[in-house]
Specification:
By secondary structure, the chain is mostly helical. Helices cover about 60% and strands about 5% of the residues. The strands form 2 sheets. It has a two-stranded antiparallel sheet. The longest helix is centred in the middle third of the chain and has 22 residues. It starts with a helix and ends with a helix.
């Protein structure tokens, strides 16, 4: 892990090119531009469901996480995930390294064997959360989900921006002991990897994954909030590949598709009008340039 600090310091200068968002806000990188948006959190559940479709990931979560305990545990896990993402994206090198060390320490404790044969994996297959192949799957599902959610609810990215997002996010791989060359550094590489995995028998929704999915989508609040929760689940289910959506047993209709499209269109119109305090995470707002012209553009709503 000591060598990870050096890799981070090498990656940081690559973030200086800047990435212009809606109506002029400029973040130091495309990764920061995408991760700055609170609305991108709407895709978090989709990324988790994709990850759980890998039997070894599902087994590790089921055996080593309090994810299924109750609504409070799920919200606490979400908060920890958001905090880690913000520290890795917007923190100082020391803060990013500290978070990476905590994540790696957790990964070091997550190991065991697959209880039931699932997909092309027989019962008894060993797993370890430090396995580069599993870390690649988790990374790829998060990256793909962030990009898809951003473009759906915020606005389009150019092909160059998608490539830069992949390259920038891959630069932090050594922080989590991911060997160089494992993570995709372009959008084409990311999509090719995901398509290969999704077409294989390695990705298969088993009993563990369905149990965890039920916990993920279980009601969080009182009955009057159920319609809102159903709305928040639309991008989680709607952005899944159709095969996995069917394997999880989720119902998806043309009506669901229309509601999601309408909600996303409204988001794309409204977001540029929101003040930064509502639109961006606090850590992201601190990453915006402090030059007078930039400060004025933020304060007058021209973000």
């Amino acid at each position: 892990m000591e060598r990870a600090a050096g890799s981070l310091s090498v990656a940081l200068p690559q973030l200086k090119r800047g990435a212009r968002g809606e109506r002029g806000a400029r973040f130091p990188s495309v990764v920061q531009r995408v991760n700055a948006e609170r609305v991108v959190l709407l895709g978090w559940g989709r990324a988790v469901l994709l990850q759980l479709a890998h039997p070894l990931v599902a087994e590790g979560v089921a055996e080593h996480s309090t994810f299924r305990a109750d609504a409070r545990a799920r919200l606490a896990r979400l908060q920890r995930t958001v905090d880690a993402m913000l520290a890795l994206t917007f923190g100082t090198p020391a803060e990013a390294l500290a978070v990476a060390r905590r994540i790696d320490a957790i990964h070091g404790r997550v190991r065991g064997r697959l209880a039931r044969a699932t997909g092309d994996l027989p019962a008894g297959t060993p797993y370890c959360a430090r396995d580069p192949a599993l870390l690649l799957w988790v990374h790829a599902t998060f990256a793909d989900t962030a990009l898809r959610t951003y473009e759906l609810f915020v606005g389009p990215l150019t092909p160059e921006e998608r490539d830069r997002y992949c390259a920038e996010s891959a630069a932090g791989g050594p922080l989590l002991r991911i060997p160089p060359g494992v993570l995709p550094t372009s959008y084409a590489e990311l999509q090719a990897y995901l398509q290969t995995m999704l077409a294989s028998d390695r990705i298969a929704v088993g009993e563990r994954a369905r149990e965890l999915a039920a916990a993920l989508l279980a009601p969080l609040g009182p009955p009057p909030l159920r319609p809102l929760e159903a709305l928040l689940q639309l991008p989680i289910v709607g952005l899944l590949p159709a095969r996995l959506r069917a394997s999880y047993g989720f119902r998806w209709t043309a009506h669901h598709e229309r509601v999601l499209a309408s909600w996303a269109a409204l988001s794309r119109r409204v977001l540029p009008l929101l003040p930064p305090a509502l639109r961006y995470w606090p850590a992201a707002r601190r990453a915006l340039p402090r030059a007078p012209s930039a400060a004025c553009s933020v304060q007058d709503g021209s973000v």
